[in-house]
Specification:
Blueprint (H helix, E strand, L loop, with lengths): L4 E4 L2 E2 L6 H16 L7 E4 L1 H9 L8 H16 L2 E2 L5 E2 L1 E7 L10 E4 L5 H9 L2 H20 L3 H15 L9 H19 L7 H15 L3 H9 L8 E7 L10 E6 L11 E6 L5 H4 L5 E2 L2 H7 L6 H4 L1 H18 L3 E8 L2 E9 L4 H13 L5 H7 L5 H4 L3 E2 L7 E4 L1 E4 L2 E7 L2 H9 L4 E5 L7 H6 L2 E4 L7 H9 L3 E3 L5 E3 L4 E4 L2 E4 L3 E5 L4 E4 L4 E2 L5 H13 L3 E5 L3 H9 L5 E5 H5 L5 H9 L3 H26 L4 E4 L13 H11 L3 H11 L11 H6 L1 H22 L5 E5 L5 H22 L6 E6 L2 H5 L1 H7 L2 E5 H9 L7 H9 L16 H15 L4 E5 L6 H9 L4 E4 L4 H12 L1
Parallel strand pairs: 4-5, 17-18, 18-19, 19-20, 27-28, 27-34, 28-29, 29-30, 30-31, 31-32, 32-33, 33-34
Antiparallel strand pairs: 1-2, 1-3, 3-8, 6-7, 6-8, 9-10, 9-12, 10-11, 12-13, 14-26, 15-25, 16-20, 17-24, 21-22, 22-23, 24-25
Helix pairs in contact: 4-5, 5-7, 5-8, 6-7, 14-15, 14-20, 15-20, 20-36, 21-24, 23-24, 24-28, 25-26, 28-29, 29-31, 31-34, 35-36
Bound molecules: adenosine-5'-diphosphate and magnesium ion (2 copies).
The site of one magnesium ion has 7 residues, from helix 32.
Length: 883
């Protein structure tokens, strides 16, 4: 095994592809050296040394010492110095670097090799005593902090005390003698804290630092970070040892960081900061205010401190040239670290830069347009989930935020409006043209119309999978849930938080991306759906195989789905239409009826309303497929709950309060999720399915006439476990179709299919597909029934399950490929056995989750269906799955 990889002087033993071995930093230092860029020479101990270290009781391979000595000698030859030489010492930095950039690992130690003797030599050689002692005090601070465990605040206190005693404010005010005195104090402090002196032998210093890097792989911070980001412990970290270059040698020296493009906007322009006469992390540490790199940025910021472009024009030009070269070489925006020593530029790091979602999109599209990457690569560069941030209005980053409370970021985007405390009020005010935020302790299905009317939803109770959160995400409305500090008083129509009271009509802004609740109207930025977004989506559409449909039932949602590029509706939940103000009474009348005649009378009132809904939906979708699911939820969800509501309904329907209460008791279920719902309702009350089927078919005939486009409805039966169930309901639907054909003289084209959302249905898919013409996997219910977990009750234990590593991700967020996915695969295979061309899709929250979309592509589904706002995410995820 090779234990040491050298780099420097225009060549290297490593290269950027060797990231697993050399870590990100080491691999890129080698690559830059190979490119002939000015990189201080050095060497990398690969991750294999780390693996060896832990496999052998924290010891090193026998050859390592000699190999390091040889590598150090090479560095010395290139720099004309010798490590540990009292007259002409080589100083180095020791830098950790794992495969994935990992906070929690050891910090870098600079200026290693300095001691009481070598510091004098450095002073003499540089003819700069101040520089030498400034470096030494930095070294003692860093080494003590990261290697010896003597916290840096000790040294900062000593420095502050010294400065105030001597009337200095800035570090740059201190002279060589000041630093020399401080070095004495620093060393005394180390002696005091550790009971032994600061190590003077450069070899001890070096191996101390190397050991600290490997040791830090197993510190608590690193372990936690690895767990949170699923980084395997077996990867290990590399160590880089590199000759020092000095940014602290006076006015022609500097240190800085830069991005080749603006990481927040994506604009193609060098972006960064630097500090004259400084070292290492001074720029980010905020000790002095850094200066802009370019004149353009300096002017834009209105700064009077000179830019690098004007202060160090030669080094700047060189840096500009190199940053362009690196971007072209890596074919991506780079994050760079550099130092200028007496006018000469040195490169110390390059890597792909972190960026916002907005910048990511712009950079990908522009790199493709510049010919640096292909359109397919651009499609692969953007994280689909990050699009969520771009599709909603966002709080202007420059705006002032008066945070009154913080809850969970339940559904992204920002919204502002007058607060209201009831769904009805929201609807009324919206009709008058007022924007509202619906504030509830928590929401229930009866609040849907108010949620639709509101700009955003705020609740004081409930988690990320609460009703408010799930429905809001489905609607693409901003939502902050579970803001526990809020006291909501429905009677007084007030909201109190930390002694501040907001009345009905007061304006609040919510930020569903951060969970913040803000006072007043905060300025926002509207999403930009044209430009780069549209371009990238177009490229994605060329690549993907999966079709993308939307879950939608209201005209507004259907239009939005179309505008986001949906290719049909995969799930239209008819029950959402039942809650609308105009119809809930007829629905309740139907449920309260004791006999079929009574139910039919109520259903007759509902029929024209449902038909109108479907006509509008078909018109908007203009011939694209529309899947309509028959009534699914338990009937008691439609009954009134509070005494006041019951009294109200009793009066409106002219029935006794007792009658409603009796029906409530009759319909009460211990476990409604597994109760009287889905096709079970259609089997007990076929007249309901008959009315719905009739409404669908009549609407199809009307819409086809109106638009001139053939309408092919897909009627979907929910929650079947057996073929017999499906056949009974199918017969009702077929009969309704015949009746409509006879009455209208039109010829209908339609399909009848089923949800596969119970394990039994997946297992018996072969026989079910004999009569069912399509399957839509309802992976929400399938997850509940496969896992035996109720989604509404999962909050208390699923979180800890994820934390303990029992499950990797919440199966309601991302499909459980091993279990639920297996059932989907079985359903696909067996369904195709009896109907090879059966149309297959999924609906539910998973349809908008990129990992789940990839799974759907892999098992060969025809489409995924998701909420309208997630359609672009699904389009991009489907494209990436196909790449
Ligand atoms: P991080 O991973 O925290 O960025 P680095 O190893 O990149 O840590 O080091 C941080 C900073 O230290 C660098 O940006 C650079 O300014 C400085 N530095 C590291 N090595 C050297 C060196 N050989 N010469 C001069 N400065 C260095
Ligand atoms: Mg760095
Ligand atoms: Mg279901």
């Amino acid at each position: 095994t090779k234990w040491v990889y050298s780099f420097g002087d225009g060549k290297a033993e490593g290269k950027s592809e060797m990231r697993n071995l050399l870590g990100g930093k080491g691999a890129n230092l080698a690559e830059m050296a190979n490119l002939g860029l000015p990189v201080p020479p050095g060497f990398t101990l690969p991750t294999e040394v780390c693996t060896y270290y832990y496999a052998h009781g924290e010891t090193y391979p026998a050859e390592l010492k000699g190999d390091v000595e040889a590598a150090l000698a090479k560095v010395g030859a290139l720099t004309g110095k010798t490590f540990g030489d009292p007259a002409n010492p080589l100083l180095v930095s020791v830098r950790s670097g794992a495969r994935a950039s990992m906070p929690g690992m050891m910090d870098t130690v600079l200026n290693l090799g300095l001691n009481d003797e070598t510091v004098e030599a450095v002073a003499k050689l540089a003819n700069d005593r101040r520089f030498a002692f400034d470096s030494y005090r930095r070294f003692i601070t860093m080494y003590s902090d990261v290697v010896l465990g003597v916290d840096h605040h000790h040294f900062e206190e000593i420095l502050e005390h010294y400065k105030s005693q001597h009337g200095h404010t800035l570090d740059t005010d201190l002279s060589a003698d000041d630093w020399a005195k401080l070095v004495v104090e620093y060393k005394a402090k180390v002696q005091q804290e550790l009971g032994k002196p600061f190590p003077q032998d450069p070899q001890d210093q070096l191996w101390g630092a190397i050991g600290a890097v490997f040791g830090s792989w197993m510190n608590q911070r690193a372990i936690t970070y690895r767990r949170l980001h699923s980084i395997p412990e077996s990867w290990g970290t590399a160590v880089n040892v590199q000759a020092m270059v000095f940014g602290n040698m006076g006015e022609t020296s500097a240190t800085g960081v830069a991005f080749t493009r603006n990481p927040s906007t994506g604009e193609k322009a060098l972006y960064g900061e630097f500090l004259v006469n400084a070292q290492g992390e001074d720029v980010v540490a905020g000790i002095r205010t850094p200066q802009d790199l370019t004149e353009r940025a300096r002017k834009a910021a209105g700064s009077d401190k000179p830019s690098m472009e004007s202060a160090l024009p030669e080094a700047f030009k060189e840096f500009e040239r190199i940053s362009n070269a690196l971007e072209t070489h890596y074919r991506d925006m780079q994050d760079l670290e550099f130092t200028v020593e007496k006018g000469k530029l040195w490169m110390l790091q390059t890597r792909s830069g972190k960026r916002t979602a907005k910048a990511s999109l712009r950079i990908a599209v522009e790199l493709a347009n510049e010919g640096l990457i292909s359109q397919e690569e651009a499609v692969g560069r953007v994280d689909p989930a990050s699009l969520d941030q771009l599709l909603h209005p966002a709080i202007d980053p420059k705006a002032e935020r008066k945070v009154v409370a913080t809850g969970l970021p339940a559904s992204p985007g920002a919204a502002a409006g007058s607060i209201v405390f009831s769904a009805d009020e929201a609807e009324t005010l919206k009709a008058q043209g007022t924007k509202v935020i619906l504030v509830r302790v928590e929401t229930s299905p009866e609040d849907i119309h108010g949620m639709h009317a509101a700009e955003g939803i705020l609740t004081s109770r409930g988690g990320m999978t609460s009703h408010a959160a799930v429905v809001a995400r489905g609607m693409g409305k901003p939502c902050v849930s579970g803001a526990g500090a809020l006291r909501i008083d429905y009677n007084a129509q007030t909201l109190t938080v930390n002694g501040q009271t907001f009345k009905k009509g007061d304006i609040l802004t919510i930020d569903g991306s951060t969970g913040q609740v803000l006072a007043g109207l905060v300025p926002m930025q509207q999403p930009e759906l044209s430009g780069e977004f549209a371009t990238l989506m177009g490229w994605a559409d060329k690549v993907r195989r999966l079709k993308i449909r939307a879950n939608a039932e209201t005209p507004a949602d259907a239009r939005m789905a179309r505008s986001f590029g949906a290719e049909g509706i995969g799930l239209s939940r008819t029950e959402h239409m039942f809650f609308d103000a105009g119809r809930i009474l007829a629905v309740r009348e139907m449920i309260l009826s004791d006999d079929e005649a009574g139910r039919r009378a109520a259903l007759a009132k509902l029929l024209p309303m449902q038909r109108d809904d479907f006509v509008e939906l078909f018109e908007i979708m203009k011939g694209l497929p529309v899947t309509i699911r028959l009534l699914d939820p338990p009937l008691h969800e439609f009954l009134p709950h509070t005494d006041a509501e019951v009294a109200d309904v009793a009066k409106s329907l002219g029935v006794d309060v007792e009658r409603i209460e009796r029906r409530q008791k009759e319909l009460h279920e211990v476990n409604p999720m597994l109760g009287f719902r889905g096709c079970r309702i259609a089997i007990a009350f076929p007249e309901i399915a008959e009315m719905q089927a009739r409404a669908i078919f009549e609407a199809a005939v009307i819409a086809a006439k109106k638009t001139g486009e053939a309408v092919v409805p897909e009627v979907m039966v929910p929650l079947i476990a057996t073929k017999a169930e499906f056949d009974i309901v199918n017969a009702v639907i077929q009969k309704a179709a015949k009746a409509v054909e006879e009455e209208t003289g039109a010829k209908l084209t339609f399909q009848v299919g089923t949800m596969i959302e119970l394990p039994r249905a997946a297992l018996r898919a072969k026989e079910i597909a004999e009569t069912a013409e399509f399957f839509s996997f309802g992976t929400n219910d399938l997850t509940q029934t496969c896992y035996g977990v109720s989604r509404d009750d999962a909050g208390t234990f699923l979180g800890p399950y994820v934390q303990k590593g029992i499950i990797e991700v919440d199966p309601f967020v991302s499909i459980d490929v091993d279990g639920v996915g297996e059932l989907v695969k079985i359903g696909v295979e067996r369904g195709r056995q009896s109907r090879p061309n059966i149309k297959l899709g999924i609906c539910g929250e998973h349809g908008g989750d990129p990992a789940s979309v990839a799974f759907c592509d892999q098992v060969g589904l025809d489409y995924v269906s998701c909420s309208p706002f997630r359609v672009p995410i699904a389009r991009l995820a489907a494209a990436q799955a196909a790449l």
